[in-house]
Amino acid sequence: MTEHPGFGVMLAWLLDHRELSGQELADRAGLTEDEVRAVLTGEALNEGLLRRIAPAMGFHAVDLFILAGLEVPDDMAPLDTAAER
How far apart are the first and last CA of the chain? Predict the structure, then answer.
């Protein structure tokens, strides 16, 4: 099994694939380039950043939570009244 490369590596790949720079992502997400750089290097990752980065890249935030290996916040989890706890 292949080891998970880390969210920063995957985000860098996605940026490259979408032909976006870190500065362009920062501008779209209302972040500083330093904040984006910190995520790319694995230094900082939190719920607020993921929620801002996702729409700036055209993703649903829940997708980035899953890519990052973080628990999906309750407000993003689908509501299924038939599901049991």
Answer: 31
Write the DSSP string, 3-60.
PP--HHHHHHHHHHHTT--HHHHHHHHT--HHHHHHHHTTS---HHHHHHHHHHHT--
User: What would the pLDDT profile of 33-67 be if each residue is shown by its tens digit?
Assistant: 999 999 999 887 889 999 999 999 999 999 999 99
How large is the average pLDDT for residues 13-30? 95
What predicted TM-score, i.e. pTM, was given to this entire model? 0.80
What domains can be seen in the chain, in order of their start residue?
7-70 (1.10.260.40)
Compute the residue count for the chain: 85
How many Å apart are CA 22 and CA 77, to the nearest integer? 29
Closest CA to 73 of 82, 81, 61, 85: 61
